[in-house]
Hints:
By secondary structure, the protein is α/β, with parallel strands linked by helices. Helices cover 44% and strands 19% of the residues.
Amino acid sequence: ATERSNPTGRAPILVASNRGPVSFSIEVDGSLTPRRGGGGLVSGLSAIDDPSSVWVCAALGDADRAAVRRSPEGRLDLGGFDVGGQAVRMLDIDPDTFNRAYNGIANSSLWFVHHLLYDTPFSPLFDERFHRAWESYGAYNAAFAEALAAEAAPGAAVLVQDYHLSLTPALLREMRPDLRIGHFSHTPWAPPEYYRMLPDDVAEAVLAGILGADRAAFLTLRWAFAFADCCEAVLGATVDRDALTVTLSGRTTRLGVHSLGADADFLRSRSHRPDVDARLAALRESVGSSADGTPRRTVVRVDRTELSKNIVRGLLAYRHLLRTRPEWHDRVVHIAFAYPSRHDLPEYREYTAAVERIAQEINDEFGTERWRPLILHVNDDFPRSLAAYRLADVALVNPIRDGMNLVAKEVPVVSDAGCALVLSREAGAHAELADDALVVNPYDIVATADALYRGLNMPAGERADRTKRLADAATVLSPQQWFLDQLRALD
Ligand code: G6P
């Protein structure tokens, strides 16, 4: 209430996202250590060098909450720690409300609908618990809208990120009609017939919430059109597909498309630091050489252990390759990095167990005393991921559906000697990389195995040429440019 009676702040540019640019861990002595987050948004934000801009995010755990409580007015004291120049305001939202909003709605319902992850004979079940979580999602979105309203200078630009915050644009517009509001979806958008599985009130509120922005932006035209299709089918909005606008009750929201590229400068320098060199040497050692002394080839994947990343089918495709192409026995190793993610959700815990089980089965079926056909690492290690990017002969990026997929763009940039890219046609990156990737239907294990085989057999010269073109296509839009373009489009 105090915030609303003093409605204008000083920030000319604001960003809002669930996960912020920094998170904390508690040390044994009780002190808090900040850690910079990864991802395109954090890199993009380094483009604004304006200390009066503010990034509003949520405290994600106990350490973050402790950091907020030690900071005046929720503004984090980062002790000179660099998150791209702007101040960070972390919201200390009641843990139960946060968990219901984040796990109950954002990560299970909205993420699942946009990535087509429902297992329809059993899920979803929109029961009382879901509707209670939906109320919490409203409260969580309102907390963001209030904080943004309090921080924003008159006429400020506010960039609201992702499916966690789909109600915030409309709530914020009501409090502060002077602001220029953008919403950006980092996910795919579901087609209307799938989207309409959500309860009607939820389906409507999510769309109307985003339409509260002046501009609703997506990573590809495909997702922007899917959003427009849902606005038409669910809300009866008027869509102009040439002008890229959606009009509802006399208000028009512009649609935007901003593809996100790999951060070439950062990746190229980071991937040649000594810690990455050391990990590359260790990886080479564990991959080893075949009986005739030739270094083994590698198929590499790097993902969060995320249902939409399709890791299980990727492993089954590799198994099919080994079953049908025995000439590759002892000559190839699959390096699969599957980092922990969203373990509060039982589906993710089960999926992680399935990944580990199938990986074990593959090693049991084909492994020999001298050859371990599959190396699975489940602990996040960024320099080791970069080392695997440099080493990969074939990269496997086979998501069921993905807003963009930056691994597909990062590997060609970092690769030492060229890497064949097996790429799902359902990844947003497909729109830019299709010409030089080996494109697959992610559900088809046999076709994926065949693409792996083609990648392994691709002549070195062709691999290097394709990798060069992939790297060019992957770096057209730097994260910094991606961010500045969104800001400019709000003018
Ligand atoms: C996707 C989403 C991001 C999210 C990230 C990690 O990339 O688009 O908004 O931050 O996954 O997921 P998490 O639940 O750990 O934040």
